[in-house]
Specification:
The structure holds 2 protein chains of 2 kinds. By secondary structure, chain A is mostly helical. Chain A has one domain: MetI-like fold (Orthogonal Bundle), CATH 1.10.3720.10. In chain A, about 75% of the residues lie in helices and about 0% in strands. Chain A is built from 10 helices and no strands. In chain A, helix 7 packs across helix 8. Chain A is flat. Chain B has a domain of about 170 residues: Orthogonal Bundle (MetI-like fold), CATH 1.10.3720.10. Chain B is flat. Classes of the chains: A mainly alpha, B mainly alpha. Chains A and B meet through helix 4, helix 5, helix 8 and helix 10 of A and helix 1, helix 6, helix 7, helix 8 and helix 11 of B.
Chain lengths: ~300, ~300
């Protein structure tokens, strides 16, 4: 009998909870799917591509995509040198993925460390570290990037270094502000009272409380990093000329806008969709973890 | 008095920041780059190279070169361009800066002019069609690469429809497309900020009080709501200004706009290092000064703010 009672009571409650959970995660389903597709394409670009992205075939140049009168040989058409655009987009996804994987965690570690120390120590050290952030703000990152790019020449490694220098301060400013308010809390005072050192408190008490903020900023930075890499490649100081990257494809398409719409539309759409996805996921995460951060950007 | 103290401290800090930028740019371009190789043809003999190095003072110890450079800067001598018969770099930059300023101002006017009203209306009509439109615009604005948008607008509005020129800076019409491309990202950021600020403000007690006093909805919104909602916008303007200047580099290249950004890119391509150095210093100094102005005006608008915040 008792079993019957739970059987009649439980379903509506569980059902409601299930429905609520479903609604909570529904907003995430579309961006998460796109993100998985993007990561999959980037990771397996070599296997998925129908062609070598750099194979030049002038006889097949400027072929339209299959849905605009082209053939299945080149589903998304070819560019002015007859290179397969689908393969180039897939390899472009790989470049973006590598840059994101290298830059976002790296900048998060650098920025969080600097912000944490600046917030905890205050005084001279904290001030000097914050002036570092000011310098980063005052030195237009794109100019510095162009300067470095022109000296060292375009390469993927240089793009990653430049973007690390470009993005770390986004973390340090927020982390510092949070660390300053956490510093005065009772659990920190208690820890100090029993003789904990600065490094211990930063690692065991401040960092876990900051992690939400850092993860949210990291997600929002994905789009910024991808767009920045495209901008650098567009200016010719990003990835080297032979590499298929979305920014570079847009540069190359400039002179063919009228004859071949697909050359400029397709990489542009790829960029927009991925950046859009990153922003949606960042927004979702922020609302779920920490609505106070609504004004981050 | 406190205001002036704070201004003095901020100015000293800004000076320090510019000094560091000068040093970074100097060491990056002097130590890593080899300016003399850019001045000579590929097949120059070693004696030629030595001669040029001697003339440019590149054989001095790096500290001496650095000291000389700082001394020249202190006397406001920014050096001569490698190109164009050695014209003064600062005067070329001054000529170009008017155009960059015009573009930046137009982009800012576009961004605030669209974002503030739209953000306020979206907040007041939460969940309605206009709110969805505004939020969609904001998300799209943050995901669109500005240079791609610029190229697409050139294609549609200049090439296909012929409404605007494809580039250059002749007249008001040529300003519109670059200003929109440059301002879009800022517009999205300001709109999100205005919308969320307005939503928060409209929930506060003083708005309820204002309504209880029997003020008309228009006065409640305009005089009590909007003023508070726009405060945080002022703070992001400082960071936004830096982003606008950085973004203008790429937009100036797309639209062949004769501003500082394009000058820098052209100078880098032709390895005109004195020009690059001076231009970066000028931009860094203007961004720092703009940030000081924003900080100070924020303190004037909102006396609650005291030093030590973000």
């Amino acid at each position: 009998m008792a079993q019957d009672a739970t059987a009649t009571l439980a379903p509506p409650v569980l059902e409601r909870r299930r429905r609520r959970n479903w609604r909570r995660y529904a907003g995430l389903s579309v961006p998460a799917t796109i993100a998985v597709v993007f990561i999959f394409c980037g990771a397996f670009a070599g296997l998925l591509s129908p062609d070598d992205p750099n194979f030049i075939s002038l006889a097949e140049r400027l072929q339209p995509p299959v849905f605009d009168g082209g053939s299945w040989d080149h589903p998304l058409g070819t560019d002015d040198l007859g290179r397969d655009i689908l393969s180039r987009i897939l390899h472009g996804a790989q470049v973006s993925l590598i840059v994101v994987l290298a830059v976002v965690p790296g900048a998060a570690v650098i920025g969080t460390t600097i912000g944490l120390v600046a917030g905890w120590r205050g005084g001279l050290v904290g001030n000097l570290l914050m002036r570092l952030t000011d310098i980063q703000l005052a030195l237009p990152s794109i100019l510095f990037a162009v300067l470095l790019g022109s000296i060292f020449g375009p390469s993927l490694r240089n793009v990653i270094i430049i973007l690390l220098l470009w993005t770390w301060s986004a973390y340090s400013r927020l982390v510092r502000a949070e660390a300053i308010s956490l510093r005065e809390r009772d659990f920190v005072t208690a820890s100090r009272a029993v003789g904990a050192g600065g490094v211990w408190i930063m690692r065991k008490h401040l960092l876990p409380n900051l992690l939400n903020t850092v993860v949210i900023v990291m997600t929002l930075e994905v789009a910024i990093v991808i767009l920045a890499e495209a901008a650098l490649s567009f200016l010719g100081v990003g990835v080297p000329a032979g590499t298929a990257s979305w920014g570079r494809m847009i540069t190359e398409a400039r002179t063919f806008m009228v004859q071949a719409w697909w050359m400029i539309w397709l990489p542009g759409i790829a960029l927009m969709v991925v950046a859009f996805t990153g922003n949606l996921m960042g927004d979702w995460l922020r609302d779920a973890l920490d609505p106070r951060l609504r004004n981050v950007r | 008095m406190q205001f002036w103290n704070f201004l003095a401290i901020r100015l000293v800090q800004a000076f320090f920041v510019v000094f560091i930028v000068v040093s970074i740019v100097f060491f990056v371009s002097r130590v890593v780059g080899h300016p003399e190789t850019f001045l000579l043809p590929q097949d120059a003999t070693n004696e030629d190279i030595e001669l040029v190095k001697e003339k440019l003072g590149l054989n001095d110890p790096i500290v001496v070169q650095y000291g000389n450079y700082l001394w020249e800067l202190a006397r406001l001598d920014f050096g001569q361009s490698f190109r164009g018969g050695g014209t003064s770099t600062i005067s070329s930059i001054a000529d170009r800066s008017v155009n960059t300023f015009k573009l930046g101002a137009a982009a800012l006017i576009f961004a605030v002019g669209v974002a503030a009203p739209l953000g306020i209306i979206a907040a007041l009509k939460r969940g309605r069609v206009i709110d969805w439109v505004a939020r969609f615009l904001a998300v799209i604005g943050q995901a669109t690469p500005s240079f791609w948008l610029g190229l697409m607008m050139i294609f549609f509005f200049a090439v296909e429809l012929g409404w605007f020129p494809t580039g250059g800076s002749k007249g008001f019409k040529s300003l519109i497309l670059p200003a929109i491309s440059l301002g879009l990202l800022e517009m999205a950021a300001i709109m999100r900020l205005t919308r969320s600020g307005m939503i928060d403000v409209m929930d506060t007690d003083f708005i309820r009080t204002a309504r209880a006093k029997g003020l008309s909805e228009r006065v409640v919104v305009m005089r009590h709501g909007v003023r508070h909602a726009l405060l945080p916008v002022v703070t992001v303007l400082g960071i936004g200004l830096g982003r606008l200047i950085a973004g203008s580099v790429i937009i100036e290249v797309v639209f062949a706009w004769p501003g500082i950004g394009r000058l820098i890119i052209d100078s880098i391509i032709s390895s005109d290092f004195p020009m690059v150095q001076t231009a970066i210093i000028v931009l860094a100094a203007s961004i720092s000064l703009a940030n000081v102005v924003v900080d100070m005006s924020y303190r004037l608008i909102d006396p609650r703010i005291r030093a030590g915040g973000l």
